[in-house]
Amino acid sequence: MRQWQTLVKKELIASFRDKKWIWVPLVLILLAVMDPVSNYYLPQILESVGGLPDGAVFEMPEVTATDAIGMSMGQLSSLGVLIFVLISMGTIAGERKSGVAELILVKPISYTTYIMSKWTGLLALVLVSYVISMLFAWYYIGLLYAFIPAGDFIFLLFFYGLWFILVATLSIFYNTVFNSPGLVAFGTIATIIVLSVITSLFGQKLNYSPSNLSNHALNYLQTGKIQGALIGSAVTTIIISALLLVWSIYIFQTKEHAS
Amino acid sequence: MSILTVTGLLKAYKDMTAVRGVDFSLSEGKCIALIGPNGAGKTTILRILAGLLKQTDGDVTFSGKEANADIREFIGYLPQYPVFPSWMTAREFLLFSGEIASLPKEEAARRAEDLAEQVGIKDALDKRISDFSGGMKQRLGIAQAIIHSPELLLLDEPVSSLDPIGRRDVLTLLERLKKEMTILFSTHILNDAEEVCDELLLLHQGEIMEAGSMEALRQKYQTSVIELEFQENPEQYLEKLKSLPGIMDCKLERQIIKIPAADIAEARKCIFQTATEENWPIIGFNLNRASLEDLFMKAVKQ
Asked: How far is the C-alpha of A142 from the C-alpha of B256, rounded, in Å?
């Protein structure tokens, strides 16, 4: 337990000195806030670039607070995930490649502790950045559209957050599989894309897919009803993450730690 | 009393076999050199002992433990090219190393200070490791390897990349550490081994060619050379020397007669006897002991 603490502390200090604790939340805030804000000011923006030609009819769709937070989530699900993959692709693979892992792994620490500390360290950065960016989005949407009730927002925050836990775990998993950070990034992104394509192709049958988490969560905001599908995909996501983590530890234990 | 016993250790990769079934044991409290040319399998063996690689076959048994048990807590290891998390200071890294080796925080802090003093990086303790020179990194590497007071210290080419001063410092340090723990270090520089080690393991193409104490090996491969220098042209004495009973062969090189002899005592007796009887004008008598390099070449050629 103490070794785990020491290793987590090292991870946190490393990402702190890397300035990751500054730029990752900043970029995510930007992503989350950008679409709702620019959408709100769209008429003014159109006006300032010359406006529409006379006689053109342009009807602005009615955008609700739920639609707006949906835009934020859309950005986080695409570019946000990309940022998370970028910051995590070398967390183990890079350490092994450079040789730092050689100094750490000859010390009497269990491989489980090592993987768990990497996972915790990454999750801390990912989840804190995610929560901060969503809070900003919630605040600006509240100012410009309407405030989403705090209780509903926390509910959304929790269920959609599970998706990022899965993304981080997936990256840790590929970190134990591949020795090159590039391959780790590729594997993680490819898996996420394949998962979402399959989910949209077989939408009905795969209603519990982790890719559906954001849709189901938004659906809750719109209807105010907790549906079985939301709980279903949440449980699937948790189970897959746990299995991936155990599998990563297994792979790491059977792997050689020097080339 | 051996602290570690290795039997039938084999490490095979898809396209090559790095270690071909070696047996050896390390005596407690000794400094043992693992000598061999590049590619002999030294690093592979050390990495297997340190638990970084898994052997294809064979057993590594630490005294009092089951075969192939996890023995990392008893082992300190310094790789050939240690890579540190360069954003840390030396103190942070030593503390970190101590704490992941299960030392209590205060103990780790105290050991970090102590060891920094011992290896001579006390003044640089709070500097970022990225600012360290090669020699300082090597010292820091040794300090982190022994922070948890291991019983066996494994060093992979600890001095090969250092300048003469750094080399000297590290060898002196090893000399001191020898009193506290068993040391196994690999090197391809025979002089370094000769200087600090008590025992040798000669490795060549993944096999142990010879093992034993320095003295035992010397005796085994001893064909020391007696060099005789004369006041006048020594050619006339060549034939006479060849006919002596204790001497098999001799040759002339740059006005010096060189006589390889298996039994030095016997050869010396013959030479001196004849020389006194016939009143040879000898002005130099020199006994050249075979160097480690000669031993190595011989063992490898067999």
From this structure: 101
Chain A and chain B share a number of CB contacts under 8 A equal to: 66
User: Tens digits of per-residue pLDDT, B138-149?
Assistant: 999 999 999 999
To test the contact with chain B by mutation, choose from A10, A97, A98, A106 the residue with the greatest count of B C-beta atoms within 10 A, namely: A106
Supply the ipTM of this predicted assembly.
Answer: 0.86
| B55 contacts chain A (CB < 8 A) | no
Closest CA to A81 of A210, A198, A250: A210
B224, B288 Cβ separation under 8 angstroms: yes
Report d(CA B223, CA B259) in Å as an integer.
9
Contacts of A115 in chain B (CB under 8 A): none
Q: Do B102 and A106 touch (CB under 8 A)?
A: no
CB atoms within 10 A of CB A149: 12
Residue A20 φ/ψ, nearest 5 degrees: -65, -30
Q: Which overall architecture, per CATH, does domain B2-213 show?
A: 3-Layer(aba) Sandwich (3.40)
Q: Which domain holds residue A39?
A: 2-254
End-to-end CA distance of chain B: give it in Å, rounded. 30
When the candidates are 3.90.930.50, 3.40.50.10170, 2.30.33.40, 3.30.70.980, the CATH number that belongs to B221-301 is 3.30.70.980
Which candidate from A3, A17, A98 shows the least CB-CB separation from B83? A98
Banded pLDDT at A37 (limits 50, 70, 90)? very high
